[in-house]
Write a structure and sequence with these properties.
four-stranded antiparallel sheet; six-stranded mixed sheet; 17 strands; 28 helices; globular
Length: about 700
């Protein structure tokens, strides 16, 4: 009907001709571009029809287009019927040739046991044939869609529901019993196996055919798991169906906005289209689905580059459609692209002020960035595993004459490594022994073994001394190198444990609704950690030729932080400003890549606020005998243990961090007012937030004075 409108809506016929406007088929399998059906040399099946590229391919559809137009322009029912039969016959005939190319695609995707009849069973839909007139003119002008939100997978619920409508509601044992009964029938068993094989074929096709290239992005150095998400597949497909000046609007699951697996689709939107708006909803009765299901309506033009857009998030009704400017937020490209550099997740912002604050925060480098002459971060997400390594006896609650503790996340709080100052963290319950006492039960021995098996420091020696230019294995090359210089091969004793130095640790388990999301401290030496307490590695490996004579080879380990850098890093990641950013990304855990991609001022010696923050963080953290050495290394600082004095120091760090981020008074007031409050806070009371604001004003006047 839209296609028949020329100048005025009144010109639409009451019953417009829709014979070639509504078509049926599997729209995810088939050709969408005239160049896709260009033949290889010697492809006789299409050469007879002028197969080639560009105009030659369009000539292949010349008679289809002529027949369709003859049908549309017919003045009699007889002539229209004749033209329709002719057009349908030609579409079917040419479609058979394209089906053969689809068969080649399946086989090229790794599906060997497939026949031409199997392909016909998928009902391929060749857009270039079914809408030949549209493709002659460059593609569709408008696409509006609400694709399926399901994941294509082998589902016993789906298959066996045809034999028992209540199958989905059965418990596991009832389902297994019902399946066993039905699968004893050879015919049903064969159908079940065919069903599973069909899903496998489609998965291989969608994943490997080359038709869909935006489904498995790389996030934090790893390829996202392929999931056969139909909404994502349809969304990628529609991008290939439209003219450059076309407009699209799609209703999609909320994961299109914040799912890791949608990264490449979001970057396609930012880089290759002009997005007008994203309106994100919590269902709340809009659709007949779960009320907490999230979805988004995305509207964009299929050309250009997105520099800004209107965004509305967490809506519960459809009012934004009637007045987007009233409800919408203006989102610049930097906020959309830099909020999550690794996964390109779009932030769920609630106000224009939040957008402005985020825009300032995001101008700083991510933790993972290598900044000239600045300290760098390398995370160790798991030192020991609480389940596996405890079961193997490397640490336990009851250890005779233990030598050192093994910490979990509950054993630390901000600037607190034990329970002597407050009840915010627990005393350690796990302990272990030194390697020379009982190597088979020593957690240190376990960690040394894991590091050695992971290639430490073997890989660095191999890379830095030209091992890649030889034909020897890494271990063969390194053993020959060390034997030449020190007379012995590489061994586990050459691994220097991170626990031999003071280091930053943070709780892995976190929530955006906790009093604080980011909880970190500097640990004493000789404290080990399970996986719920991640650490910043204190060392990097930089071998020199002089190191090769050493035994053990500990000289290859250089410290990543000076003592002052260690505590300025601690102060910044414990600050309210960094916490405000992290809690927008956190559900139940501090995901490693989300931490490393988050923006933080990389303060170095001589920079404003460097010593101001470092000194105060050290005063808060370096109490007790465990930090006697560190206090001396810092020039004899005085630790602070009085509760009120500690709160004041922490407020000064929070205020200084706001200044380091370049946030003005209005920004700070917004963050403090917007920061999540808990009903029974330990520290983050209204009085504390008022103190931070007062400190910010004082520092605005005085600057980073001692």
């Amino acid at each position: 009907m839209v296609a028949d409108i020329e100048d005025e809506p009144s010109e639409v016929e009451p019953l417009p001709n829709i014979d070639f406007n509504i078509r049926q088929g599997n729209t995810l399998i088939g050709f969408t571009d005239v160049e896709e059906v260009a033949t290889e040399e010697g492809d006789a099946s299409l050469t007879n029809y002028g197969g080639g590229i560009g105009e030659n391919v369009q000539e292949m559809y010349r008679d289809v287009i002529r027949s369709v137009e003859r049908h549309r322009e017919s003045e009699s029912a007889r002539e229209a019927a004749e033209a329709r039969r002719e057009a349908e016959k030609l579409i079917e005939e040419y479609g058979q040739h394209l089906h053969k190319k689809i068969l080649k695609q399946f086989k090229g995707s790794g599906v060997e046991n497939i026949t031409f009849d199997d392909v016909l069973g998928y009902s391929p839909f060749h857009w270039v044939l079914e809408f030949a007139r549209v493709y002659r003119d460059g593609g569709f002008d408008v696409i509006v869609g609400n694709p399926p939100w399901d994941v294509l997978s082998s589902s016993s619920d789906e298959f066996f529901a045809q034999y028992n409508p209540t199958f989905r509601s059965l418990d596991r044992e009832e389902k297994e019993a019902f399946m066993d009964e039905k699968l004893s029938d050879p015919e049903i068993k064969s159908e079940w196996e065919s069903y599973q094989e069909n899903i496998r074929r489609l998965t291989e096709y969608f994943k490997n055919s080359g038709e869909y290239t935006l489904q498995t992005p790389e996030v934090a150095g790893e390829t996202a798991t392929y999931k056969n998400d139909l909404s994502k597949l349809f969304f990628e497909r529609v991008l290939h169906l439209v003219d450059d000046d076309a407009y699209l609007s799609q209703v999609l699951p909320g994961l299109i906005v914040n799912g890791e697996g949608s990264k490449d689709l979001r970057m396609q939107l930012l880089n290759e289209t002009s997005v007008q708006s994203i309106i994100e909803f919590e269902n709340n009765g809009i659709f007949d689905i779960h009320k907490q299901q999230r979805f988004a309506v995305i509207t964009f033009k299929n050309s250009g580059r997105t520099e800004d857009l209107w965004g509305v998030f967490d809506q519960k009704d459809t009012r934004p459609f009637t007045n987007l400017e009233e409800f919408g937020l203006h989102l610049p490209r930097r906020v959309l692209a830099e909020y999550s550099p690794e996964a390109r997740i779009f932030p769920w912002v609630k106000s224009q002020r939040e957008v402005e604050v985020l825009d300032k925060i995001l101008q700083h480098p991510p933790l993972s960035a290598q900044v000239d002459d600045a300290w760098s971060i390398n995370l160790l997400p798991e030192e020991l595993n609480e389940t596996r390594d405890k079961r193997k006896g490397y640490f336990d609650e009851d250890v005779d004459n233990p030598d050192y503790p093994v910490y979990t996340g509950s054993n630390v709080f901000q600037y607190q490594y034990d329970d002597t100052l407050s009840d915010a963290n627990d005393s350690p319950t796990y302990w272990s022994v030194e390697e020379d006492r009982d190597p088979d039960s020593s957690a240190k021995r376990r960690i040394r073994e894991k590091r050695f098996n992971a290639g430490e420091p073997k890989k660095a020696l191999y890379d830095d001394f030209g091992g890649s230019s030889t034909s020897k294995s890494q271990i063969g090359f390194v053993n020959d190198l060390l034997t030449k210089h020190r007379g012995e091969e590489l061994s586990e004793k050459d691994v220097l444990l991170d626990s031999s130095e003071y280091r930053i640790a943070y709780r892995d388990v976190a929530s955006s609704t906790n009093e604080r999301t980011m909880i970190a401290t500097v640990l004493p030496k000789d404290v080990l950690c399970v996986h719920t307490l991640a650490t910043f590695r204190p060392y990097e490996i930089n071998p020199t030729e002089d190191n090769l004579k050493q035994s053990p080879l500990h000289g290859v380990y250089d410290r990543r932080f000076s003592d002052h850098e260690l505590f300025v890093a601690l102060g910044l990641i414990n600050s309210l400003s960094f916490d405000y950013l992290m809690r927008t990304k956190t559900d139940k855990h501090l995901v490693e890549y989300k931490l490393l991609e988050s923006k933080l001022p990389r303060l170095t010696e001589g920079a404003d606020w460097f010593y101001y923050i470092s000194k105060r963080a050290a005063q808060l953290n370096c109490y007790g005998e465990e930090f006697t050495e560190m206090r001396d290394r810092l020039g004899g600082i005085n630790p602070v243990t009085d509760e009120q004095e500690r709160r004041e120091l922490q407020a000064e760090i929070d205020a200084a961090a706001f200044h380091a981020y370049g946030l003005n008074r209005r920004d700070v007031e917004f963050i403090l007012n917007d920061f999540h409050r808990v009903s029974d806070p330990r520290i983050m009371t209204d009085a504390y937030f008022d103190m931070v604001f007062e400190k910010y004003d004082v520092l605005e006047q005085t600057g980073p004075q001692p």
